[in-house]
Structure formats: C-alpha cells, structure tokens
Amino acid sequence: MSPLWPCRAVLTFSLLLLLGTSLPMMADQLPPPEGDVLLRVTGDIDHPNVGDELHLDREMLLSLPQGVIETSTPWTEGVGRFEGPLLSALLEVAGTQSEHVRIQALNEYESEVPVSDFHDHGVILALERDGEPIAVRDLGPMFVLYPFDERPELLNETVRHRSVWHVGSIHVP
C-alpha cells in the first residue's frame, strides 16, 4: 500500500461529499420555487420544474455554485464586490448543451451570449453588490457580470452589450 493512500482516501471522500451536497440541484426534476420567481429559463432544457420551463427563486439561485468578481463597471461607481451564481453552473442545472443563449432584461432588451464566455471568463449572474441585494434601480435584481478589471480586454462594445442588467429570463435556442 502506498504511503500516499491515506491522503488519496481523504481527497476521494472529500470529493464525494462535495458532489453529494450538490446532487439535489442536479436532479432531473427540481422542485418548483417557493419564493418569488426571479429567473425563468426557457427553450431547449432537459430539467424544467414548471411546465417546460425552469423557474428559480432567490434561494434556488443562491444554492448554485457561486462566483465573486471584484471589479469596476461602465455602469457603476468605483470597484464593487459582486456575488452570484456562475452562469455555467446555472446552465448545467437547466440541462442544456447549447452554444449560445439569449438573455432578456425585464424591459425586453436582449442579447445573444456565447456559452463559452461563461466557462472562459467565470461570468456570474450578480445578485449582490458589496454584500447587499442589487436593487432594480441599481441594475438588479440580476446582472450578467464579466471580470472587467481582471481582464481589461473584455471592456469592449461586444461584451458590454452581453452584460445584460435587470435580467428576467434566459432562452436556450
């Protein structure tokens, strides 16, 4: 038996424990939301929970794997600490293999975003800024956020148009 066996066993157990805690959110059928629906995911998804759509309330969104981005933006003052679910994790829960999605704001503005952005840049659906929920008057309740300060090359017209605020729905074609 290798002297590294105890370390590998602990690592394997830790990974299984971590995966076990995320399994309820990865189930084929998520329960319907108990709170107010903040986000609807429609279209070609494998894991709907209300008819053929995935509806998520704030608690469900907060239970997804989260990301933190500390950045300034063209629409806010100063550097903020933004937190919210990773969009890559959200699409995994929805069960989609699409290469792009259409993100629509509450005012019906929409932008087509390549899913590769979510994986390549750790894009989040920001729900909080500096520990507080983002109000509708301040780009909320949700905001597609890229790590602009960490990757200044993303601060271009194309990515700014993909950074939808007042997000209400995501459509998977």
TrEMBL record:
Q: Which Pfam families match?
A: Oxidored_molyb
Record-linked InterPro entries = OxRdtase_Mopterin-bd_dom (IPR000572), OxRdtase_Mopterin-bd_sf (IPR036374)
The Oxidoreductase molybdopterin-binding domain covers 73-138
Signal sequence span is: 1-27
Q: Give the record's keywords alphabetically.
A: Signal
Recorded superkingdom: Bacteria
Q: Can you name this protein?
A: Molybdopterin-dependent oxidoreductase
